[in-house]
Every structure is written in C-alpha cells, then in structure tokens.
Amino acid sequence: MAERIEQRLEDRVPELEQLERVGLFTRREIRAVLRKASALEYKIQRRALRKEDFISYIQYEINLLELIRKRRARVGYSFKKDEIENSILHRVHCLFNRATGKWKEDLQLWLSHVAFCKQWNAKHQLSKVFSTMLAIHPNKPALWIMAAKWEMETRLSSESARHLFLRALRFHPECPKLYQEYFRMELMHAEKQRKEKKEFQKAKMDLGEFNYSEDILSGEMARIVYRDAAQKIKGVEFHLAVLSIAKLFDFTQDLQKEILESLQVKYANDPLTWDYMARRELELGSPESTEGTTKQRKIAEMTQREERCCAVFEEAVRAVSSEDMWKCYITFCLERCNRKTNSEELKQKRLERTLSVFSKAHESSLLPEALYKQWLQLLLESSLFEQAAEVAEAATKRFSQSVEMWQMRLQVLIQLKGDSVSQCFEEAIKHVKSQGTVALWTLWVEWSESTSSKEETEALYQRSLRATTPAESVTMKEKYLDWTYRNCGYKKVRRVFTSLCENRPFSLDFFRKMIQIEKEQESCKMFHLREYYERALREFGSTNSDFWLDYVKEELSHPQGKPENCGSIHWRAMKMLQGDLVEDFVSKYTLLQTGHL
C-alpha cells in the first residue's frame, strides 16, 4: 500500500514543480499540498473504505483547482494548463470513478460528478459518466431527461438526444414527463433547422448539399411522438402540458389544432378541458394594442373577453355539473377579481360576477367547503357584512360537523357584534364532535373575556375542561390559569392551580406559567416553587433535562434556596432521565458548576 501511495505522490511532482516555477505557489505551500495529499491518499487506500474520505479528497482537489484559477487571474498567467490543471482534473475523475464504482446506488455521488464535468467543460468525460450512470440507474426518468438535454443543448446533437429518449421510453413506456421532453426536443430540433435554412436562404447559398426534410421542418416528428404518447398515457393533464409546449413554437398551428381536437373528443366532460377552453378566450380574438387605442377601449375589450370566458364556463357547469367544475369557474373569477386595474367599473363588474358565481354554486349544492372561506373573505373585504352572515350560516348548515365552518361563522358574528353569538356557540358545540373543538372553546372564552362577567367566563372555562378531550384540555388549562391570574389575583390562581392538578394530562408550559406567576410576587416563596417543580418533574422528569437544571438554579439563586439540595436533585435526575438526556444533563450540570452556564 505504501509503495502505491508513494507512486501517486511522485506522479504529482511535475505539476507541483510547474506551480512553483511559474510563481503560482511557494515552496512552503507545495510542501503543505504534499502533506495533505499524503494524508488523504492513506485514507482512501485502507481496507475498510469510507465514502466520506473520498468526498473529502475530491473536495480538496476541487478547492485546489479553484485556488489555482484565482491565482492565475491575479497574476495574469494563463500557460501550462495541460501540465497543471489537466493532471488534477484527471485525478478528480479517477476519484469519482472509484467512488461511484464502490457506492453505485448513491445518486448524489453521480450527480456531483456530472456537475464537476459541466463546471470544467469535460464533455468527453461527461458523456462516459452519463452512459455508466444510466446503465446503473435506468429506473429514474429524470436522469434520462438530464442526459438528453445535455446532448441537445450542449453538444448540439439532436440525434444522440433522440436515441437517449427512445432508450428511456423502453424502460418507462408510460412516463408523461419523458414524452413531454421528447416532444419538446423534436420541436426544438425542427425550429433549429428552420432557422438554419432561413439563414442559408438569406445568404443565397445552394441548399442541395443540406438535407432539410419538410416533415421535420413542419414538426412531423413531434406529431408522431404525441400520437404515440396519446395511445399510452391517459388523462387531460398530459394533453394540456403538450399543448402548452407546442404553443411556444410559431410553426405548430396544425399540431396545436390536432391536440385540441383530441382533447375535446376524448375528455369532453373533464373540468380541466372546459377550464382550458374558457381561458383560451382571453387570448383568442384579442386585437393587438396600438398607440391609438384609448384606455376606455382597452377596458371594453378586456370586459368582452372576460364575458366570453364566462359564457364558456356557464356552458361548462350546465354540461358538467360537479364540484371540480364550479371550482375551476370560481378560481378563474377570483384570479380576475384580484388582478389590479385602475378602472373602478371593471373592478366592480369582476366583483359582482365572482359573487354571482359563488351564489350559483351554493344554490347547486356544489360549492366545496374550502371555497366558502374565500367567499366570506371576499364579502367581508367588500363590507357586505349582512350577506357574509347569511353565507356563514348556510355554510354551517351544509357542513355542520366542520370546525372551520363554525369558526368562520362565529368570527363573522363577533365582528358584526350580533346578539346571537352565545347561541351560535352553543349550537356549534352541539354539532361538532368533542375531539377537535378546542379551537371553538378558545374562541368562545376569548369572546367571553371581553363581553361577559368574570363569573360567566370562569364557568365557561370550567365547562370547556369537561367538554374537551383530555389531550385538548391541556390548552384550556393554560389559558384558564393565565386568565385567572390576570383577573382574579394570586390567591385565586393558587386555588385554581391546585384544582387543575387533580386531573391529568398537563403540559410543561402549564407548570412554567405557575412558576413565573410565583416569581412575580413580592414575597416569592421557595416552598411554593419547590412544590411546582416537584409536580412538573413527576410528569416530565424522565423526558426533560432542562427542567432539572432550572430546579438546581432555583435552589442556588433564590434567597430561601438550599444549595445542599442540589446533590439530591442531581442524583434523582440521573435516575429518571432516559437515553441521551442523561449525557446532556451531565454536560450542562458541569458547565453550571464551573460558572459557564
């Protein structure tokens, strides 16, 4: 092993001598490079190889290359690259090859090698890397696409890219993304050839020696790809994706027409088809803006186009009456409504149209739950409070077990300061299951705090503790404790704390809150603090090391504290804590003893 390492170090000598001779590195730096290289070589020649050692070595060599590049730029020396950089690049490629040969399944290693080849423009080497990587990872379509894109865009080889896509489709015959990118590649190739032909014609060159097929120039290859894909891949999303790609090229009108006809025939009842057809009206028939076009005329044209879109959507909801169809229609209306415009008339029309569509969907009982919230927000933003209250009531009737719907209705009523808020809360609690009602109880007690007497609010808190599930009652306990202290004082909060401790579960914040309340008193008693810490540690002593440390700090810093208790607390903590928490506690306790915590 030593002989092999010595040989590798000797192979470095020519490049290092050149670095010193041309003044890029000093003799001292050369020795440092040799020492580091020797250490790294020994690590990758061990019997038990580690991936991290290869990564470290590769990163060191890359950093060395970057340093050489910066030094060259600084001194303005650009010669001897074959003797210096190429030698290092060859070594990095060898390291990557060894690493990927050993850990073939590590995709990140392969991608790092690809990125390195791209960065240093190693085209020949990158071609080999892609070939080997795809042989080992043929089940990843993204890698095939990456390789084909590189062949097409960097090496300008459409033939190689096509060959890669065809190979990929043998492994993934029903992959939509592969077909989309293959389709795009064929159109890019056609566009490239069209531009070439145009330039040659401008230069009045003889095109006899160039083989420009009319089928390729018109995008016939892309049409074949689409037709093949359409037989294997079902779903409107693929057709729409291919159509959006075709629209990027100005010579694909016939192809776009074919895709659109296929879409309308095969997926006539799909909401996404109708959505596309409707939105298409925004682009169709829109005259190009000219300097003489007035602002008023532009607004009129936009209004007409939006009305055409809505006419298609109206036809769609009659033909395909479903939640998804109404959702597409409403989403379109909301998008137009949120668009900025200086015309108040257009803004008002969009708002009225959107609210009308919401109402129609609601009357059809096909408005999804999530859209009720957007409807209410729109009504509140438009200051239509009475209508918002009616919509909120209708939403809770339709989705009577939805906590979110009841929350929305209650928030609207609270905002309107209606008389039926309390009655609505009662109705909500009756309809919604006990699990998940903590949000409603939180809203109720917060409303009660600002509108009702202390006695009524306290009764509500106690009722919430009985009504919620044990896990959710933890939140209400914390809020109850906080409210009691703010409104009823220290003595009352002590009694409430004692009563709440009778029923599990608790949270750590519940005890922290009570400790904080005790510390805020003028006569803060250590006896009470110990009680709170002991109660908390009975519940969380095995899972929280910080609370033990806080207890120790309290004994050390409080005027009535007993430092001699710290040893006992430490002993108990070591017994109760589990797993890594013991080590964590020991290290922090040591820092505390030495005054570093």
Structure description:
It is found in: Nucleus, Nucleolus. GO terms for molecular function: snoRNA binding. It comes from Atlantisia rogersi (Inaccessible Island rail). This protein has 597 residues and is mainly alpha-helical. Among the domains are: 1-103; 515-596, no CATH class. The protein is 75% helix and 0% strand. It has 30 helices and no strands. It has helices at residues 2-21, 27-44, 51-75, 85-102, 107-119, 123-136, 141-153, 158-171, 176-202, 214-217, 220-232, 236-246, 253-266, 271-280, 295-319, 323-338, 344-363, 369-381, 385-398, 403-416, 421-431, 438-451, 454-467, 470-488, 490-500, 508-519, 526-540, 545-557, 566-576, 580-593. Helix 7 (141-153) packs parallel to helix 9 (176-202), helix 16 runs antiparallel to helix 17 and helix 24 packs parallel to helix 26 (508-519). The chain starts with a helix and ends with a helix. Mean pLDDT is 91; it is low at 286-292.
